Amino acid sequence: PFLIFLVPIKADAFHFMELYKNLPDYEKNPPFTIKDKMLHAELRKALSNISPYTKQCRAGSVLVWKAPIIGNEKGKDWRIDLWTNVCDLKKYKIVKGLIANLTPSLSPDNVTFWITDLDEDHEPDLIVGYIDISKGELKYPYLSLWRFKYSDGAYKALYAGPFLNGTFHAVRGFGTNPSKKAVFVKHLSCIECEPIVYLTAIDFEASDDAHAYEFTYSEKHEGFDPIIEYGLPGMGHTVDAEVETRLLPPSESGPHLLQFFDVEGGPMIISLQTVTQRSQTIQRPGS
């Protein structure tokens, strides 16, 4: 095995809109338009009375498309499950109703949420998820996320997305600051293909926006993207490899993430270290 340091940076802003078509532009047209501080206070109070579960539970589903009927046979509809870590149904419905009051342009049936603590300030952090189905001939599901950040008597919604067939994967400590956590989203490179499974690490603790950590697998230290390769299909589309990804405890010096690629030519270990400048060089053993 040999060791390579992959260098992630933080992007100035984070959205994939330039890659996808026929989707709402939530950067230009944010759906959280209701500024009534009484509603915001009601939401904050409801969140304070909830203890989130350590595991997620199913909270409904969203229809992507209905299967065609061929002769007398009907296939299976494609539905995307919604998940949450608020498994008390009564409390879940209360918070979901309050979110709907703040987001009149979103369909409540496509909304879910998670409660976490991203900065260890003991203020519940609300992460709202929404499934969009792309318009046009090809209909695919995309996940968008907003972090509701409470300040000065109201919530501000910080946006990240959209993610193709995305799922809320985990909240973990990541990077240089032990008191802050990143939100990890799992998503796909494509649908009607053998997809690469990606992870994207989002910093919702940035000053004014959500920022993604960017990485490069290039030895020339080029081509940064906000994705980690989490699963490879092989079969000529990518290298044939089993990928294992492990986060390491946050620290100033790093490394912060290890990846083990089990390939035919021998195993490869990749170590990712969080920095904020692209000028950091790739290091190898003995250099």
Describe what this molecule looks like in 3D:
With 287 residues, the protein is mainly beta. The chain contains 2 helices and 18 strands. The protein has helices at 37-48, 89-102; strands at residues 3-6, 9-10, 57-65, 69-70, 73-74, 78-84, 111-116, 125-133, 141-151, 154-164, 167-173, 181-188, 197-203, 211-214, 228-231, 241-247, 257-263, 266-272. It is globular and about 60 Å long. It starts with a strand and ends in a 15-residue tail after the last strand. Mean pLDDT is 79; it is low at 1-19 and 275-287.
Give the C-alpha Rg: 20 Å
Query: Major beta sheet, specifics?
Result: 6 strands, antiparallel
Ranges with pLDDT <50 over ≥5 residues? 1-19, 275-287
What's the β-strand tally? 18
**What is the distance, rounded to the nearest whole angstrom, between the alpha carbons of the first and last residues?**
17 Å
List keywords for this structure.
287 residues; mainly beta; 6-stranded antiparallel sheet; 4-stranded mixed sheet; disordered N terminus; disordered C terminus
Structure, briefly:
This protein has 287 residues and is mainly β. It has 2 helices and 18 strands.
Task: Please render the helix and strand layout as text.
Blueprint: E1 3-6, E2 9-10, H1 37-48, E3 57-65, E4 69-70, E5 73-74, E6 78-84, H2 89-102, E7 111-116, E8 125-133, E9 141-151, E10 154-164, E11 167-173, E12 181-188, E13 197-203, E14 211-214, E15 228-231, E16 241-247, E17 257-263, E18 266-272
Parallel strand pairs: 1-18
Antiparallel strand pairs: 2-14, 3-6, 4-5, 7-8, 8-9, 9-10, 11-12, 12-13, 13-14, 13-15, 16-17, 17-18
